Structure formats: C-alpha cells, structure tokens
Amino acid sequence: MNETDRIVLDLPSRWMNQAGTAGFSPGNQLLPNGSIFVTNPVSLRVRMPSADRNLLPFPGGFLLHTGLPNAGWKAIRRKYQSHWHQSDSPIWIHVISQDLAGLEGIVRDCEEIDGIAAIELGLPPACPRDWMMQLIQSARGEIPLVLHISLGEDLSVLSSLPEAVSAVTLGTPRGIVPEGENGRLIHGRLHGPGLFPQMLNALQDARTWQIPVILGGICNQKDGETALNNGAAAVQIDHLCWQGGLPTGL
Amino acid sequence: MKSAQCSLLKICKNGSVVFVELELPSPVLTAGQFLLARNQRDILPAVLFSTDKRGQYIFPMNSEFHWEVGDDLLITFPHGHGFTIKPDMRKLLMISQTSSPVRLFSAARQILENGGEAALFSRNLPDQVPPEIEVLSDEQLDEAVLWSDAIIGDAQLHHMDFWQGFQTKYQLSARQSVQILVDTPIACDGTAECGVCAIKTHAGWKQACSDGPVFNLRDLEF
Ligand code: FES
Q: A189 touching B, CB under 8 A?
C-alpha cells in the first residue's frame, strides 16, 4: 500500500486530548484554542457504568475502570451536535461500536455534522485481524478514519492496513491492579507518566507501519515534545486535562 | 470553584487515619463537601473532607500517605454537595459504615452549636470522639433511630447493604431525613464524565463528584 493513497488526516494541531479525558463537549475550555478535541468513547446504545468501577493508584500511575458509560450515539448526538458545530476545535468522535451496521450508521451521521473532522475507532481487546478489517470496512467513509489500538494488544494486526485508515492512535495499555486489602483483581486502562518509556518504545517500533502514528498517554509537555521529535504525528494528552486545563503554549 | 496554593502545617495520625492541617482561610467547605489537593509530585489529587476541627481535613483512608509538613499544595474547592443541615434539626443520629466516622462530625458540630444533640453509631471509633457526641452500642441503635429527627451516614460505593433495607426496617417518618455520604473514587471531578463515581438513583445515574457525594437515602436505587 502506498501511503499517498490514504485519505490525508488534517492535523492543524499536533496536540489533542485522549478519548475519555475531556467529556463530549469541547466547550469546557480544557484545551488550548485550535487543538483537536477527541470525545469520550461513544457506543451505539447506552452503556451503564461497570459494576466494579474503580480507580486504583500504582507507582507511576493509576488504573481506571469505568465501563465507558455513555448515553448512546443518538442521545449524545442530540445533546452535543450544536457544540461540535460551533467549536473552533476540529472534533474527532471516538467510536466503540461492535455492531457493524450501527457503526456504519454512526459514520454516515458524522459525515452530515459540521465540525466533525475524523472518526477514531477504538478496537476491542484481543481483536482478531479479520474482525478489525470488518470494523474498518463499516467505519470507512468520507471523513478520515483513525484506528485506536492499545499497547499490549497484538500490534501485528496493523501490518498493511487498508487505505481507509488514515492514522493509528497508540493508546496506553490495559492492566490489572489488586484492590486494597481484599486483593480482588480489577482490570482497566492504565494511565500515568510511568508508562511513557513503554509508549515511546512502541512508537519507535511503529516506524515500520508506514502510517502516521498518534501517541496517547502523554502526561506532561516534555514527554509530548519527546514523542513529537521522535516520529509521532501528534500526541494525545491523558489525565493532565483534569488539572485545570493544558498549558496554552502547546 | 476556587483554587489556591496552601501550606501543609501539620500531620497527625490516628490509627490508620491521617489528618492534615492546611493553611487556609476557614471554613472553605460545608459538611460533606470536599476539596482536591495535590503537591507537585502527585499524579492525581487527594480528596479531603473537613472534620469538626477548624482547618483540619481527613486524608483518604485507602491512599498511600506521602505528604510532608511544609509541602505546598495546590487545592481546588469546594466540590460537590454536602449535608443539608436545617435550623430545626435538633437530634442528629450519625451512622458510619466506613473505617472512620470523622467526616460526619462537622455536621454534628453545626447541630451542637445550634443547641441540638448528636449521637454516633460506628464500629470504627476514632481515639477521640468529641465529648458532646453520645456513642451508641448495637443495642441502642433502634431506639436512637426513633429518637432522631435527622440521620446522616456514610458508606462505601460497593458496600451499601446496610442502607439498602434501612428505610423499610425502621419505617421512617416523612420528617426524618436520611442523608448518606457515599464514598466513591474520584478521578476527573466531572470534567470528563468518566463515570467512576457513578451512583444509581431513582432519577437515573448521578455523579458523586458533582451531584453528591451526599445523597438522600430515598433517592438511591439499590
Ligand atoms: S470522577 Fe469522573 S465523573 Fe465523577
């Protein structure tokens, strides 16, 4: 595959938030003007909070397990469409649908909404290559498609991606942390600056993929700049968004 | 919401519970509200609740304590909705189902200062309970429920069994309000709608970080 066959992803800013860190509306002023806004994960139907939702710290970071609750695409579109339309930030919708027809419907809807600049498709854990290809097929359309895969997944599924994919986001890995004194094991997404060496290592390996790579899990400006100077097309900022917004100089 | 830089003046440990004193114009919280505090090394802020002592806050019991006296903390406050203490509340019963009841004491202080009375039922009593608060045994609980005109309590998110049948068991009258401070993890403080603090109510899912952490028992769905 020649890289020039891909739909070109417009990156007016090389800094953006990571899905799940800034909600569904860019109106909360957490990001500097003009940076890309990535929505929380959106599913076709409503998703409830996980019964064992939790936040568990570990040295260098924390595990967050929420079940990715959201009101479902239709309700989210109704509530936030005007925010996306009015925003100065290009909007990326992070979609986690496992329903092929539903996914296609979301993408068609997004093509009709002003302000939406890309779809970021979150791959489920342990996604086999043939299922990934079907998801990509359903999510392809007129707006660029960014594939989101977590570190720790089998990254070989990404070899020779179809031209429908404009870029890949490398997200932080999932992990397990024992809970308090009872030691119950909680699974979830890992976050924190302690993961950066692994993320940087994966970024180096991704050079062979012949596709722009966006590196997630960035927890400070220095790590973001390091990633950008070492091959990342753009970076996604993690929980730093929760600490009163990002530095405006990005 | 306000933010400020403040100094950590004092640390006192009481069993497994850690209290900190902050250099802050007080009071900055009402009972049941919380502030978020972090020093430069912290990845996430700590959730601090006030106690009945001015300027004193309780550090989260399940977190590793690593602050030192003199640390500069960045704090934001006030967060959440606390207990509603009405002037006509005279007989307060506190029922604690967590490892320390002290977060309830600032509500008791208000009632005591208004000339009311306060009683406490807890399996995890701190070394010092203010002398004006009557400590109850298991046998005294039923009677105290009938005596009280307001009940406040606390519980951990995944351990709500005690409260589940409380309302039916005690046939509470309409004038008896029961408010529960629900302990949930707090990650984004609502900015990301992350849902880790989600609480199920009869009006749908609510976020403890912004809609709570104090909820009316009648509103909770178990
Ligand atoms: S802590 Fe994230 S929504 Fe409450």
A: no
Answer whether B50's CB lies under 8 Å from B108's CB.
no
State the nearest Cα–Cα gap between A150 and chain B, in angstroms.
Answer: 18
Of A156, A231, A154, A178, residue with least CA distance to A200: A231
CA–centroid distance, B34 to ligand 1, in Å, is 14
Q: Is A24 at the interface with chain B, CB within 8 A?
A: yes
Q: Where are the domains of chain B?
A: 2-79, 91-219
* pLDDT, tens digit, 9 for 90 and up, residues A212-226: 999 999 998 899 999
* CATH tag for B91-219 (out of 3.40.50.720, 1.20.120.1200, 1.10.238.10, 3.40.50.10310): 3.40.50.720
Contacts of B189 in chain A (CB under 8 A): 242
CA atoms within 13 A on the CB side of A106: 32
**Contacts with A43 from chain B: Cβ below 8 Å:** none
Check whether domain B2-79 has CATH 3.40.190.10, yes or no: no
User: For residue A83, which phi and psi values (nearest 5 degrees)?
Assistant: -65, -45
**Per-residue confidence at A1, pLDDT binned at 50, 70, 90?**
very low
A26 in contact with chain B, both atoms CB, cutoff 8 A: no
- Contacting residues for B168 by C-beta, under 8 A, at least 6 apart: none
- Closest by alpha carbon to A95, among A148, A173, A34, A142? A148
Indicate the top mutation candidate among B36, B76, B207 to test ligand 1's pocket, ranked by most ligand atoms within 8 A of CB.
Answer: B207
Q: Which of A209-213, B61-65, B93-97 has the highest mean pLDDT?
A: B93-97
Q: What string of DSSP letters covers A63-99?
A: EEE----B--HHHHHHHHHHHHHH-SSPEEEEE----
Domains B2-79 and B91-219 share a fold: no
Which helix or strand (DSSP H or E) is residue A201 part of?
A: helix A196-205
Q: Which of B76, B192, B205 sits opposite A241 (nearest CB)?
A: B192
- Helix (H) or strand (E) run with residue B181 in it: strand B177-183
- Domains of chain A by range and CATH? 3-243 (3.20.20.70)
- What tens digit of pLDDT does each residue of A187-214 get? 999 999 999 999 999 999 998 888 999 9
Question: Is the preceding omega at residue B78 within 30 degrees of 0, hence cis?
Answer: yes
**Residue numbers of A between 134 and 153 with CB closer than 8 Å to B:** none
Pair of tokens at residue B150: 């307001």
